[in-house]
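lol so apparently i was supposed to do this last week
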Amino acid sequence: MSTFGRLVSERASRVDWPAARLEGTSVRNSVTKLGQLQAYFRSRAAFASMDPETVVYRVQWLEPIAAGVEGGLFWGSTTVEPGRVGDEYFMTKGHFHAIRNRAEYYTTVQGEGMLILMDEQGRTRAEVMTPGSLHYIPGATGHRAVNTGMTPLCFWACWPSDAGHDYDTIAAEGFGARVLLRNGAPALVTVADLGDSVER
Ligand code: M6P
Ligand code: ZN
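anyway here it is w/ 6-O-phosphono-alpha-D-mannopyranose bound
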């Protein structure tokens, strides 16, 4: 093999941009089904009437260094299926980063959605996710992606290798607003307007 051949290599991982898919042997995969999301959706009655085996979202990602080690970056894609539990659109669990000051980028490839963002005081807002939208998620900001469309919502994400996922805060307290079907369209509705109490 020439020197050139030894020093220049095809990367082991590749992205399929339009499909928001990762290819390669070190790609990690997770599938989240409805049955794992009982704590997250508002309507217990609607949830109980649905098949817990329904796939809500899939994540593919690369961890070039070990999770928890400072200094690296992780890269992945998420596909949230279209659907609702009652009037609430399918969504990711959402999380804060375990190391609170760690930030993240999301960028949308396909579909329509909303990115719910919440600070540690519970102040909640949303950004519209549409193909090409780029979302900077600052540190100390909970984040959840919601599919408000009729087709899969696919987005890329890049986050620090030591960020970690704090799911407990969201599982216990929720976000300050939910994305619900209202008058035929998705709307960000605050928990105060829903009459749901959130203690912080
Ligand atoms: C993005 C990143 C991942 C995250 C995934 C699903 O790809 O933020 O870190 O795991 O979305 O979101 P969640 O973990 O909240 O279910
Ligand atoms: Zn994150």
